[in-house]
């Protein structure tokens, strides 16, 4: 036996998406496996696709949209139109640290909602005993694809604007998405269900022994 359920482990699934629609589709399928109280921490550089991913979650959860970069608000609640949990979309980019997060009173939102936090890594994990870390990055070999902007400088120059999704310009590049399941909410059965829902070309690793 492989110790199902006992230790949370740190299982990861890695996917490659081919463009924005593909990233949305992955997130839409993931949404079917999420429930109230789930915390997703999105990590990755400017323009990696964090908001795009969140849009797919919103579609999958059947929440009232549109899901967009919460540029001037730090947190936005999208109520469900399907009788399910709301989506709480947080952008922690401008938060200075843990103190600000506490002021937002996100804990009370989390129990009734799926909460997604862009730039949330090392900032919001304390909100729950469990979280799903989603790391987005340009897939290896994508160097010759042209980003729409010189992303980092753009963000530093105009941090208040939504640079990456800015002018409605869509372009498709491969992205690597790594999902890492942390904590007791993500037991083996649930991780397996996610893998089945997302299907395809996932490669799986676990830090605490292999799953069958
Ligand atoms: N495979 C892909 N997955 C997601 N987005 C992609 C992909 N290929 C190209 N894109 C484009 O990259 C951009 C991603 O923008 P998005 O706003 O989602 O990024 P972000 O990580 O939320 O940025 P920010 O750090 O500003 O919040 C969009 O313009 C999208 O069309
Ligand atoms: Mg964003």
From TrEMBL:
Role description: Required for the formation of a threonylcarbamoyl group on adenosine at position 37 (t(6)A37) in tRNAs that read codons beginning with adenine. Is involved in the transfer of the threonylcarbamoyl moiety of threonylcarbamoyl-AMP (TC-AMP) to the N6 group of A37, together with TsaD and TsaB. TsaE seems to play an indirect role in the t(6)A biosynthesis pathway, possibly in regulating the core enzymatic function of TsaD.
Family that this chain belongs to: Belongs to the TsaE family.
Gene3D superfamilies: P-loop containing nucleotide triphosphate hydrolases (3.40.50.300)
Cellular compartments annotated: Cytoplasm
InterPro entries: P-loop_NTPase, T6A_TsaE
Start-end of Low complexity biased regions: 142-165
Region (Disordered): 141-170
Organism: Brachybacterium halotolerans
NCBIfam families per the UniProt record, alphabetical: T6A_YjeE (TIGR00150)
SUPFAM superfamilies: P-loop containing nucleoside triphosphate hydrolases (SSF52540)
Protein name, per record: tRNA threonylcarbamoyladenosine biosynthesis protein TsaE
Main location: cytoplasm
Alphabetic keyword roster: ATP-binding, Cytoplasm, Magnesium, Metal-binding, Nucleotide-binding, tRNA processing
Nuclease is among the record's keywords: no
Gene that encodes it: tsaE
PANTHER family: TRNA THREONYLCARBAMOYLADENOSINE BIOSYNTHESIS PROTEIN TSAE
